[in-house]
Amino acid sequence: MKFKDFIWIMKQKRNSKISLKIFLKGSENITIGAQCKLYRYCELDASNRGRIILGDKVTLNPYVFLQANVNGYIEIGNNTELNNFTIVNSGGKIVIGQNVLIGPKVNIIAYNHSFESIDVPIKKQKSKTAPIIIEDDVWIGANVTILPGVKIGKGAIIGANSLVNKDIEPFSINAGVPCKKIKERK
């Protein structure tokens, strides 16, 4: 850990528990609210003009990876918890609401590779970004993948191993590949 990152941790503390075994890139672009818990081996990368904002009482369990790529933006609301090995990767905008529970090994990716030209290797084509919005009080099960351009409504549940590639209605229970509504919570 670089000395400037250690100083950043001391400034951010505000009754938060931050492991000294976390990895930081672009710490000047990261804001952490009060009473947060960042466990060992988390990585927060806001280099390349990215921005990461954690609300109050956010928990990042071991091996959570947040990356706000070039001009990317990640905002996580109060009382939200991300479990082990979750990846949040934004080339655009990702907003996760309050009181959200995200299971282990979830992938939230706000960009995708272009492949329109067959004359240019896919790796060299530009990426497309689209925002991902996860509203308040959502529960996302283990191993879920959420693709760009998706909005998950308030109070929704996403079952384990699902692929979310379209908007999810509020207070609905959803599962599958692709993810489909199973029933209502109301």
From TrEMBL:
Q: What is this protein called?
A: Acetyltransferase, CysE/LacA/LpxA/NodL family
Q: Which organism is it from?
A: Nautilia profundicola (strain ATCC BAA-1463 / DSM 18972 / AmH)
InterPro entries (alphabetical): Hexapep, Hexapep_transf_CS, Hexapeptide_acetyltransf, Trimer_LpxA-like_sf
Q: Which key words tag this protein in UniProt?
A: Acyltransferase, Repeat, Transferase
Q: Which Gene3D superfamilies match?
A: Hexapeptide repeat proteins
Q: GO: which molecular function terms?
A: acyltransferase activity
Superkingdom per UniProt? Bacteria
